[in-house]
């Protein structure tokens, strides 16, 4: 069974379209989104509309929570005061440019999804099982990851939020971060997702990078009045 999982689209419609096209070409059996559909990017409504149209099971990210519930902050971990100001401008713009219908849809998203495939129990979250905005990086202590697997009685923990993909085997279990399908931080402009190939009791993970017209998205960011720094992240894949 081939399972495609993506996250952190952040209003990048062209990136999402490219990822979904690539998935279809690979003949995936199931597709999931682990949150952060909006924020930073120029097309929040179109991204939400496409996911709803495709009927893709989706969980809530911290940005979805912030926009859906009209919060003042998104719960992101800003590196400095300048980054915080940029984040605040993103929150303000996205709240103003996301429809009330789509805000209501964001509010009803679940914070976790569970399913069984190939005899393995999967748990999908955005940040971590305990917090929407907790970052699980590749260097997160293995003891912490093992604790999450044990406490949640799962074999495979899948998350996003960091925009940096990895797959770690932890004491018989697996932790997968799927990277970003709209605002990558892996060092180039390609958007990405995780392709999980499950056989009975085992799995293989491939991180797919998909090229797309990132310059168009960057120009859209600039044209709608979002900070130029967001366009530079789209162009470089670095934050």
TrEMBL record:
Transmembrane segments: none annotated. Residues 1-200 form the Calcineurin-like phosphoesterase domain. GO terms for molecular function: metal ion binding; phosphatase activity. InterPro entries: Ap4A_hydrolase (IPR050126), Calcineurin-like_PHP_lpxH (IPR024654), Metallo-depent_PP-like (IPR029052), Pesterase_MJ0912 (IPR011152), Phosphodiesterase_MJ0936/Vps29 (IPR000979). The keyword Metal-binding applies. It comes from the Bacteria. Keywords: Metal-binding. Belongs to the metallophosphoesterase superfamily. YfcE family. This is Phosphoesterase. It comes from Desulforamulus reducens (strain ATCC BAA-1160 / DSM 100696 / MI-1).
């Amino acid at each position: 069974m081939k399972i495609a999982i993506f996250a952190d689209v952040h209003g990048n419609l062209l990136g999402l379209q490219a990822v979904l096209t690539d998935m279809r070409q690979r003949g995936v059996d199931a597709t999931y989104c682990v949150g952060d559909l909006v924020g930073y990017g120029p097309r929040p409504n179109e991204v939400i509309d496409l996911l709803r149209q495709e009927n893709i099971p989706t969980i809530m990210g911290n940005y979805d929570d912030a926009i859906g519930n009209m919060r003042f902050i998104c719960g992101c971990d800003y590196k400095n005061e300048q980054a915080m100001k940029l984040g605040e401008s993103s929150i303000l713009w996205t709240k103003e440019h996301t429809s009330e219908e789509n805000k209501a849809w964001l509010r009803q998203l679940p914070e976790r999804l569970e399913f069984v495939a190939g005899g393995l129990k999967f748990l999908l979250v955005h940040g971590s099982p305990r917090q929407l905005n907790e970052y699980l990086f590749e260097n997160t202590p293995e003891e912490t990851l093992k604790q999450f697997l044990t406490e949640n009685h799962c074999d495979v923990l899948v998350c996003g939020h960091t925009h940096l993909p990895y797959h770690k085997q932890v004491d018989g279990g697996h932790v997968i971060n799927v990277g970003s399908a709209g605002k990558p931080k892996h060092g180039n402009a390609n958007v990405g997702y995780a392709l999980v190939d499950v056989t009975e009791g085992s799995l293989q993970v491939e991180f797919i990078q998909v090229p797309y017209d990132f310059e168009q998205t960057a120009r859209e960011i600039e044209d709608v009045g979002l900070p130029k720094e967001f366009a530079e992240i789209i162009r470089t894949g670095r934050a």
